Amino acid sequence: MAAQALSLAAAAAGTGAAPATPTSPRSPTAAPPLPPPHRPASAAPLALADAALAELACPICLSTATDPHVILPCMHCGCGACLDEWLARGKGECPVCRGGAAGGRAHKAPLLDSLVSRLSSLRTAVEDAALAAVLAGPGLPPSPAASAVSPPPPEHAGSSAAAGAGAAPSPVPAAQAALERLFRDRLKESVNASLALLAEVATVRDRAVAEAARRHDAAVAAANGDAATVATALAERAAATAAADTRFTSAHAALMDDVRAYLSDALPSVSLMPATVPVVVPSLRVRIDVRLRPGDTLRAVMEAVVRALREAGRGADGVDAGADVRWTLELPHAAPASDVVDGATGSGSFTIAPDVAIFRQCGPLGRPQAGWVLVGRGAFAAHAPTCVADAWTAGSRHDYWWCTTCNLKWVCGACRESCHAGHAVAPFLKAHAPSFACCYCRSRSGGKCTIPAAAAASRAAGDGGGAAAAGAGAAVPAGVR
User: Fold this and answer.
1) CA distance 299 to 354
2) Do 290 and 300 touch, CB atoms closer than 8 A?
3) ∠ at Cα 44 (39, 48), nearest 5°?
4) What is the pLDDT of residues 314-352, one digit of tens each?
5) How far apart are CA 72 and CA 93, in angstroms?
6) Contact 60, 95 (CB under 8 A)
7) What pLDDT does 44 receive?
């Protein structure tokens, strides 16, 4: 395994496309790489780096081996911590080939450690270069008809293994940037065209006013001081100027109508746009702003409250609402007990039902307005999350996650929601039945696990540990008191 990884690493160290001959990695006769997205220039070294790292994967945690150790005499490698734990559990054999482990321990492999570090650095550099090339490319064409994404031709599709190992960076960032650029460019074109037309109309008006002034001056010069002639010239100038202003105002109004009609067709209706509403839950000491979409119900509000409690260090995996809980949308200058809404002024307050979209309960206005506040009154109780390291029982099944931000696999669901909130997290194993209390966030994160180890014990003791843990939070950011 280690020898194969070394050969793959040597191949991956080359730059550019795959070599044309084994002895000439930079041969000018190598076939030029196809343009992205079908086969980016980085695909060959990226695939080789991935293949080399795959050979150095730990057989226990399935991640690239960290602090690589090897079992002698078979030379299979893995994470030092994983192999030490494996052997400490009385399994005096290699986890790959089941051969005996010399001395009953794993041996450090400095060469493999250096190799993993260099391969990881190479892969990061290749990914960064590929992403920069994609973002610097032409992007999506401006034509709406060309915005549909077609699959790559069969000759460039490659095998499924190659697609997984040498996949290019995601095209999503480039597509988003192209869409934003398209919107900005078209909006700029529309604004510039409208301003140019307005400038033309203004030029016509200015020319008419200037011509009226010229005629006035000529008439005054020819009048030789005749007061009647001067007064007539002045009146004619004022009438011509007023007529020019009227024509300009009429043209400006027509242009405004055209632009307003264009924007009405091009932009989504305001009623379909999300609204940000202040949410207050006095019993939990929470005040946050929640972005509500037209179809969101109180469920989305409660999820936002739970996230706020986690971010405040008051770890919670849920909030229980008592029978007396009542949500009201309170409008400016409203009596909290009233259920009257004045559609004209937007004043009053009314109760929000739990299973109906909040937008549909906003009366004639159709959506929450500025100044409205959603208040939850009654008994709420936040219960603390419990790590699998505390809650595991033989035969129990748990979902595990992979936090790519922390490069940590075997993260339980509670730690995913609490300790790794906001991180890039992907499913790792679903409904897995571990043979011991396994959560690498608790045991391998270097003390970064934020779920107290005693949470499960305090709740089992019946001392209200869940609610107490939720309410005792030490460091409380703005928005959660």
Assistant:
1) 7
2) yes
3) 140
4) 656 667 777 888 998 887 654 444 444 443 334 467 789
5) 10
6) yes
7) 56
Cα separation, 214 vs 318, in Å, equals 79
- Of 161, 165, 130, nearest to 37 (Cα)? 130
pTM of the model: 0.37
In this structure, which amino acid lies at residue 143? S
Confidence of residue 17 (pLDDT cuts 50, 70, 90): very low
Token readout for 346 is: 């937007």
> What is the rounded distance in angstroms from the CA atom of residue 414 to the CA atom of residue 317?
7
CA distance to 36, 170, 211, 212, per residue, from 206 (Å): 53, 54, 8, 10
C-alpha dihedral (110, 111, 113, 119), degrees to nearest 10: 170
Question: What distance lies between CA 141 and its chain's CA centroid?
Answer: 25
* Nearest by Cα to 407 from 453, 446, 438, 450: 446
pLDDT at position 67 over 80: yes
pLDDT: which is higher, 203 or 189: 203
Residue 183 has pLDDT above 60, yes or no: yes
Compute the distance between CA of residue 37 and CA of residue 388 in angstroms, rounded to an integer. 42
Which residue, chain included where needed, has tokens 């060309």? Answer: 146
What is the secondary structure of 408-428 as a DSSP string?
A: EEEEEHHHHHHTTTTS-EEEE
Confidence of residue 146 (pLDDT cuts 50, 70, 90): very low
Residues 6 or more apart whose CB falls under 8 angstroms from that of 65 comprise: 56, 57, 58, 77, 78, 79, 112, 116
CA separation for the pair 332, 342 (Å, rounded):
11
Checking DSSP bridges between strand 326-330 and strand 347-351, what pairing results, if any? antiparallel
Q: Closest by alpha carbon to 110, among 64, 54, 70? A: 70
Judge whether 386 and 414 are in contact, CB under 8 Å: yes
Structure-block tokens of residue 359: 């937008």
Please report, for residues 64, 402, 413, 448, the alpha-carbon distance to residue 425 in angstroms, rounded to integers and kept in the order given. 17, 6, 11, 16
